[in-house]
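so my prof wants the structure for this chain in the tokens format not the other one, which i didnt know existed until like an hour ago. anyway here's the sequence
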Amino acid sequence: MNRQRISQFIAAFAQKRILVIGDLMLDEFIWGKVSRISPEAPVPVVEVVREESFPGGAANVARNLAEFSSHVRIMGVTGRCQHTKHLKELLTKDRINIDSIQSHDCYRTIVKTRIIARQQHVVRIDREKRLRLHPEHAAEALRQIEAMLPDIDAIIVEDYGKGMLEQEFAQAICRIARGAGKILAVDPNPHNPLPWQHVSIIKPNRAEAFASAGLPFSEPEDPPVRDAELLKAGKILSEKWDAENLLITLGEQGVLLFRKDAPPYHAPTRAREVFDVSGAGDTVIAIYTLALAAGASPEEAAEIANHASGVVVGKLGTATVTPGELLASFET
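here's what i got, hopefully its the right format
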């Protein structure tokens, strides 16, 4: 893909209107240095240098989209606490519309705190309680989706398995999106098997693909288009989900795209160095959906999303890719 064509797509991204639905989190990073072991226990003492917070979970998908478009909406449920306030402030700062976030005392906002020293994760602290979406809150969310349909081009559903997405709610989203002819992209969770069917895009990673296909995990083989077990998993999932596009992310091998009546398409990784793969899948589904909404072919969308992922894995923390970085990745 040449510079002119990717430039045209990036320009078109700015006008695309995307709704993200899913489990919302706050990602906290505590950066420090280690120079000694604690006298109290055989653990490192981390001297804090700086602290940062970012939108996490489905909110990180919205954050990736917001680098390219100012027409991004986020839908989810949170508790009512300082963490919720901070998350909403971060999203608003990124120009993400938070009108569809429901905050109630019956939920607890998920917070993941990572302590990092010398560019290595020392420990992660999770503060979460699996929620159960109340029927009245699900009904309100569906009412909001239907009301905003004329003003969106695509919906992304991001399932982190924390309870936001249950079968009846998920099926209603599929029915509404299909009835309106909207692009519907899904990042599934094998620990929350839902009947995702007739969606535009579904994007598991390799481990999730094998789990969702009911197959034992198989170590990668090169090239992916000749990886018999991976192709088997792709065939099973293509039939199970009946998605227009099945995109399996493969880490250092890039991505593999399955489509009806077309051979699997492999886009090899574009990463020069890999520092942190956390959030890379969020980048892939965000950019792939944007590209399809902007008129890219599925293969072009896979290439663009793969380039974007190659940029973010070269950064530490929950990172995003900018339009300038994406364009530059096609020049190397």
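also thought this was worth mentioning. The mean pLDDT is 92.
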